[in-house]
Amino acid sequence: MSERDPKKYLGRATSRLTVRGVFPLEVVVFPGSYIPLYIFEERYKKMVQDCIDKDEEFGINYTSGEKIYDFGCLVRVSEVTKIHKNGEMNIIVVGCERARLDDMLDGRAEYLMGNYECYVPEEKEFDVDLLEDVSELYNRIVSSVENPILQNIKYDDLNRLINPSYLIAQKAGLSIEERQEILSLAYENDRLEVIRKHLKGVIPLATKTDIIQKVIKNNGYIGPYTFGI
To answer: What's the DSSP call for residue 97?
Structure first.
């Protein structure tokens, strides 16, 4: 459980408790994002198949190898793109809810299980001027890169989302630590501030090849997106 200020990370969003399979990975998944996964370990093949059969989520929590971070995301299998002869699978999962892993449960299944508390925002709570500033910064980077793969973000499209930060975070070339911080934060303004700080640092470097590639690669996220950016 996190030792940080609970007000900053838990927030006021509606919460519910649930027991789900736990999949520690070196990736951060946001609600609404799509991620391709290759499932090859026997226990996780079992977990994924159980979730498909029961139409249930499982949790993806970022692990650095030394620890499993408490804030993660519940995901559902959106598509099974290939099943190999040995039962290994290529799947696409979609992020559903920001969730905090309270504790691990032993002996419940062949794979890791845990108690999750899920946080579901009921309404938009962000500074529209801050969102506009973030979208303008991102678009400045896109304009300076001049790559056809990258497209401008439309502020009006972002403004109709409850958590636009999650969508921007998929496109901004953030480090894994920055992505984990964004997922951990409870309030949209705090998440947007992390992204704004990052983008302000990227702008002077936007012509460098390594920075361009980080933005173009989208940190492993794939479509379909909520809208075309």
So the answer is: E
